[in-house]
Amino acid sequence: MDSPAHRSTAGPAVGLTEADVIAVACGLPGVTAFTAGKADGAPEIAWGDTFIYYEPDGRTATSRHMPFATIVTKDYPGFDTTSDLDRPGVFRVNVNAGRAAFEQLVGYPPAAHADRHGDWDYTALDRLLPHPVYAPQSWVSVLNPGEATAEHLRSVLTAAHARAVRRYR
Question: What is the pTM (predicted TM-score) of this model?
């Protein structure tokens, strides 16, 4: 059995693509996905990244709500480079799991992450991980969800959606 710090050397796993993750999320009631681009005035660094919102009225670009999930396709220099997302074909799905689910998924509360940050290989593909930057805010992530994580990711997205619905109301 793999430990959380398992070092992955395999190439990208066969599993959910970025489009598949967007389709799963947008199949949930009231969900919209916004992929940032030049035409909508998004900052260039965000172009190609997708932000997934619970917005039952269909707003996204001017949303007053935070996304409950994102898909990031590249490193953000000087801020978020730990996952080495600049590798060909690598993307990261990020989900705001909430404190209780975060602890259940990773084995400790979000507030303890600073002391455990070094326990994880944030470049590992197809592994559920604490988010390398936003773990203290209860975010988890998966790089290239494949056989080991695809179904689990679907359930984490569904639970995060339910939390977003409760917060919206």
Answer: 0.88
